[in-house]
Amino acid sequence: MEIVLMAMLATANAVMTFYLSFINKILNSAGGPVATATIVGLYMIYGLLAYYIIRKPGTAMITYGIGGTIQCFVGNSYGIAATIVAALCYIVVAEVVFALMQYKRWGIGSLMLVGGAMVPLWFLCAAYMFGYTAWGWEVLTIALVVRVLSGVLLCGILTKLLGDSLERTGLLRNYKIRKEEASYVTGSH
Questions:
Q1: Which fold has domain 2-184?
Q2: Parts of the chain with a pLDDT under 70
Q3: Domain assignments of the chain as residue spans, ordered by start
C-alpha cells in the first residue's frame, strides 16, 4: 500500500509539473529568476507528503525516484537531465535530514525545515545547468532566499496541511501518520 501511495503522489506531481513548467516560463519572462523562485516549493511537495504520511526511511528515494521517472516519460520543459538531477538532490537532502531527526519529528517545524533544506542543493546544480550564474551574485542570492521561503511555505507548510487534512478523512488509517496521530490523542505515546 505504501508503494501505491508513493506512486500515486509521484504521478499526480508529474502531471502537475508538466503544467507548472509552463507557468514557470511565464514567470521567468515576467520577473526572471526571482519570480520563478516563488513556486519552487510546489515541485517538491509530493515526496515530503509521502514521507509525512508513511514515515519510513527510503520514502523520499522511492517517491522522488518514481516521480522523476514519470516526469521523464510525461515530459517537461526542463529536460530529462534536469528532472533526474532535481530528484536526486531532493532524495539526498530529505533522507539525510529525516535520518538526522531519527525519523521521530513530524511537526510543522520539521516539515518546514526539510522543505527549505531541499532547495539549495538543487539550486546550485540548476545554476550551472541553466546558466543562472550569468545573473550575478545579488540576483542569485535573492532568488535562493525566495526559493528557500517557497520550500518552507509551499512544500513544508502545505505538506502539513494536506497530510493532516487527508488523515482526518480516514483514508490514511493504514499508514503511520494515522497510527502516530491516534497515539497522541489516546495518550499512549
A1: Arp2/3 complex 21 kDa subunit ARPC3 (1.10.1760)
A2: 178-189
A3: 2-184
